[in-house]
Specification:
143 residues, alpha+beta, five-stranded mixed sheet
Amino acid sequence: MIKKLEQNDLQVCAEIMMSVYNNEHWQCHWTLNTSMSYLQDYFDCKKFIVWIDEKIQGAIFCHEKIWWNSNEVFVDEMFISPELQRRGYGTELLEAVEGFVREHNLAGFTLSTNRYTPAPDFYRKNGFSNAEHVLFMYKEIVV
């Protein structure tokens, strides 16, 4: 069963997030402090939307984004406990977002992910397409 996230669920989500991303695929080095702060920033956003499964085995953090022709939802973060991946939990979370999008008559939802991990195949399996018209860019500043 999917439910909305509450403030007291953040630490469990932060711990799951660390277990998902601190590995050879993602090559991240999250600490409990940084992951808690990171997720708290999303939780504090004005149009924050997040669902977790009832036992908190994963979460999807989103926000409604104002757009020129029709608002949409942007998926900021999504993760499922590594030992529970490929069991349908991620699809359930995406379906919760899709229900929200339909219920609020929004244009759809978007996300970005690392192309060198299994994540793109998961999203394609769930109906997402590569957005050929969008180029995600960044500039690294070395101090």
